[in-house]
Write the structure tokens for this entry.
Amino acid sequence: MKQLIFLFSILISLNLSAQTDADNIKKIYSNSLTNGKSYEWLDHLSTQIGSRLSGSLGAERAVEYTKEELEKLGLDKVWLQPVMVPKWVRGAPEFAYIETSPGVTTPINICALGGSIATPNGGIKAHVVEVKSLAELATLGEANIKGKIVFYNRPMQADLINTFEAYGGCVDQRYAGAMEAGKYGAVGVIVRSMNLRMDDFPHTGSMSYGDLPNSQRIPSAAISTNHAELLSGMLALDKKINVFFSQNCQQLKDVQSYNVIGEITGSEFPNEYIVVGGHLDSWDLGDGSHDDGAGVVQSMDVLRLLKESGIKPKRSIRVVLFMNEENGLRGGNKYAEVAKAKGENHIFALESDSGGFTPRGFSFDCNDAVFNKVMQWESLFKPYLIHYFEKGHGGADIGPLKNGTTVLAGLVPDSQRYFDYHHASNDTFDAVNKRELELGAATMTALVYLFDKYGIGTISNKEELKD
């Protein structure tokens, strides 16, 4: 009889705990949807400050603004973490055209890829060789490439539902295209934009020359999907057409910038840290509202929503606004470096860097023992149509925190429209839906609440935490 009473009391306790969690999470969502700050913050970040490329005035102003806003929340600590970042500048707008015969030209939309060198004064004009992959480039060899512009034209795979998988399947031509083409004597590179939609917006992004000597480094640009199709069709009719393009971008010396950090100090375990964050920098063509202004303001609102909902964290909760994810990852590496030097115990880190669209769930970088525990929380998110709980990638900026015990996670919004805007001039505030953004902030807050309340130390076999 005593055993039955004991078991019954445990069941009642578990049910009350679950009910409390459900009530607290409902309160979080209600506060975000009726009294959220993320959309207001994003409006200022996007429309009043604008693009925030590392080392730019916009990035500097964004650091100042977000620090001031975090200070208004009454957090226990707000500070700037210095980090040296690269400074690449685009310069004057790029210009390009297809020439079918002397004096007969068709303008095309291009943009320099981040990190590219400039064209020579007066630009480049040359015949074009079209390839679908780096492997195809290698089969052509120097005899077919030297003195020409290489046109990489492999589209994102449209029948992949996970658009990030489609992106990953072709981004190598953007990142390494100039490095590989330069080895064969090409004079320039034009890369099809990483975009599933047919439109006129060229999409920038980082590229690398690796260890290629300066003498072999060639200018690299992206071309819009519409004009990639146009160029490909014209080449099918006439291999002798020329392409001209001009850009005057340059890489300058590294400059001082900052990660912006705010903290609510834990009431029971202040030396156990939970991090939530996004990257404060953006590319320079739009205002970076989806990439990653959305993640920045959602992460800021996590701490505000915890306070607004009357939740006093047991562990120390930090928001980290990372600088320089786009072209260097300096901010993420610096934060992890300092945390390691101080011996800080980070139990969980959550990143938002997939746009401000409707949240679908989370991707977890952890072992099976932790993931099985996390799956017990899935039912708490189902009333909000959050069903996606999968093992996978956490995020680029929190990646350096990975150590075998820290659990990493990434917010997973609906991704079908993300690459319509990614790294392009149409990544602007008007492309973000207020309700979708606020749902994402609430979803992140709910997961942080659960990790703070239960931690990961309740798993009986500590050895299971090791990868």
The chain is about 35% helix and 25% strand.
